[in-house]
Amino acid sequence: MASTIEPELTLLEAASLLSGSSEWDSRPLPAKGVPSFVMSDGPHGIRRQLGSGDHLGIAQSEPATCFPTAAAVATSWDPGLAEDMGRALGDEALALGVDVVLGPGLNIKRSPLCGRNFEYYSEDPLLAGRMAAGLVRGIQSTGVSACPKHFAVNSQELRRMASDSVVDERTMREIYLTAFEIVVRESGPRALMSSYNLVNGTYAHENPHLLTDILREEWGFDGMVVSDWGGSNSAVAAARAGGSLEMPAPGLHSAREIVAAVERGDLAESHVRERAAEVLTMARAAAASRDPRPVLDADAHHALARRIAAESIVLMRNEDSILPLAPGTRVGVVGDMAKTPRYQGSGSSQVNPTRLETILDAIGATDLDLVGYAQGYDRQGAENEALAAEALDLAGRCDVVLACIGLDELSESEGLDRSHMRLPRVQTSLVERLAEINRNVVVVLSTGSAVETYWVEHARAVIHTGLSGQAGASAALRVLTGDVNPSGRLAETYPLRYEDTPTAGWYPAEGPLSLYREGPYVGYRYYASTGIDVAYPFGFGLSYCDIEYSDLRVGADGARVTLTNASDVDGAEVVQLYVRAPGGVFGPDRELKGFVKARVPARSSLDVEIPFDAYTFRHWESAESRWATEAGEWTILIGRNARDIVLEGALLVEGTTPAPVDERLGHYLTGDVAEATDAEFEALLGRPIPVPPSTGALGATDPLSSMSRARSRLARMVAANLAKRRERADATGRPDLNILFVTNMPFRAMAKMTRGMVSTDMVDGVVDIVNGHHLRGLRTTIGGFFRNRAADRATRRALDGESR
């Protein structure tokens, strides 16, 4: 992309390009031939908002195909399938007039409780990076730009806009940045979205270590970095650090701040012009891809959504091979989710589907005999014996009970985190009671992240559909009846209980500091290192055929293995390559370093190769601030999943001899991070643990929810009103996304989301009022309003005059 902007643009014009003009549009300069471009949420479907838009951009949207969410697509372990989905997303973006698709989301699933996990791929950065790279390649093959997010170290929804992720450099590099690195290097996204949070004390959108040192200089990214909506703190600091575009609409006061900083000598003009060049290049790319606008092929994309969903379904249990169900099986369908499916999460990614299948509708197209349907349980978890009794009666009149269960809308939503890992008790107790009446209970599970599965012993079979999009119902039935042989594999570990997770003692962080005390021991890395039992390991999945592994050959360039399908059913196997380091560097027992989804016809064998690459043997050497390879004998592990290792080999790898292990790391040397002390965490960080900011007077970076402890009685009343409105919304079973956003939003965001109606001076006045300085705050706010309005008129005149 271009690194300089045309000289005819003045400094003010260049500065004005660094902020959006509305909820979804960049700022145009018509007289200079600079068009605006349109951005839209779209990790699993294009959400082109109708009308003029609300300030958050989460109102009703144009119909579009709702594909499976990232959590579901990841279980396909098929980057090519993600690429197919990306091409369809790009085509729909073109059809709906969208230039930049805000996705995919590829933050690491640090904890099962993150409310936004359904939008993310995996607990493993290699799997997340490869799947996201496929989606990006597909989107950008159509001329539309992709915008992976949220960069970086963004792992919780609570206080997401006012939380500081405190993490050591090695963990950040190896776990939280590697997926982004893979996407940048392998798929060349034209944009990247920064995250809301601070990273080691500096906001992500103005963090020079992230945006300049790593993203631009080390990885070679030369595209546009856009802030998450309302996620910019300082326009000047962002331009200096590598942040290109503030969204959604901070108004012209951001441009004035940038110009003033240049005139004071606080900001180099070259930084402003570099950032403007990135925005301008995006505008030109958008203009070049708009004609002709294709017609949305809703039928073809619905069929693709079904294929992706089917390829992503994980067979978790199949006792006595009850599945696939034979034609003519008399089936009773139980569960509210059979009639009102959970097919996507709540939040900014919510898609208005072109159509929506249900199990009840789709079962008529199969050879199964539907005996009846019973709701079975209350969706919000209330006890209702009448509903349960109806389901139990149905169970006694059929051959197989198809029980559709899962997490509800309040459990998986942007803006909030789960409080536990359990399914609603009314659902799990119903499964137990159904099994007492009819042993042949087959569960269809719909969740976007891990849940406790103690209840599975009461089911003969379980298929995990994830949040499978608008065609998920027919996809599930194709697997249940054997039209599709399930080949999905879990993209995250299912622990036995939440208390077993490495972050259980400190997630989510309720205060301003989010300490990543677990270090690199995330997901299966932790369980494999400590030997803690899990319910279902990372990479787990069953099939209707048996595929055997043999003849491992390890060479300098990769590993080869032979797969043999001795059954009469075609199948697919996800061959997973893990490595174990020689042991001179502390870290996880094993790490995923490659995978291949291989399709093996019945009664045949197939050789599969997994190449080694730049990521296979590296670790971050913090003392030297570089990537290094430990010399010695590495163990090459080929597994069906992270626990079921079927073949092992060895490879001598050239590299460097690591420095002696720092014994101060204590529990980090064994992976027992739940027992790590403050001193051990400081040894990992390489610095003292930061001291939390004072909880005295509130500041512009505090979330609005903190008004509950404000000095001003009026502010406390506002906080109480927000809490009551949230409670009322929660009682309906569906989250109020506006309330969730506002309660997490810091005061400073008011200056970034109001199309310039609120300036930074006015934010200072509001904070004064909240802190009890009512008269001073009112004077500052009112005076700031009139000063800002007058300044905006002058800036618009200046822009108009410069553009002539």
Strand content: 15-25%
Return the CATH topology of the largest domain: TIM Barrel
Name the helicity range.
25-40%
Which stretches are low in confidence, meaning pLDDT under 50 for 5 or more residues running?
1-5
Tell me about the biggest sheet? 6 strands, mixed
Alpha-carbon distance between the two ends: 27 Å
**Rg calculated over all Cα atoms:** 27 Å
Number of domains: 4
Architecture of the largest domain in CATH? Alpha-Beta Barrel
Nearest-integer average pLDDT: 94
Task: Describe the protein in words.
The chain is α/β, with parallel strands linked by helices. It folds into four domains: 11-288, TIM Barrel, CATH 3.20.20.300; 307-492, Glycoside hydrolase family 3 C-terminal domain (Rossmann fold, 3-Layer(aba) Sandwich), CATH 3.40.50.1700; 545-659, Sandwich (Immunoglobulin-like); 704-803, no CATH class. Helix content is 31%, strand content 17%. It is built from 21 helices and 28 strands. A six-stranded mixed β-sheet has the order 10-16-15-14-11-13. α14 (425-437) links the parallel β14 (400-406) and β15 (441-446). α3 packs antiparallel against α10 (298-312) and α13 runs parallel beside α14. The longest helix is centred in the C-terminal third of the chain and has 30 residues, at 774-803. The radius of gyration is 27 Å and the shape is globular.
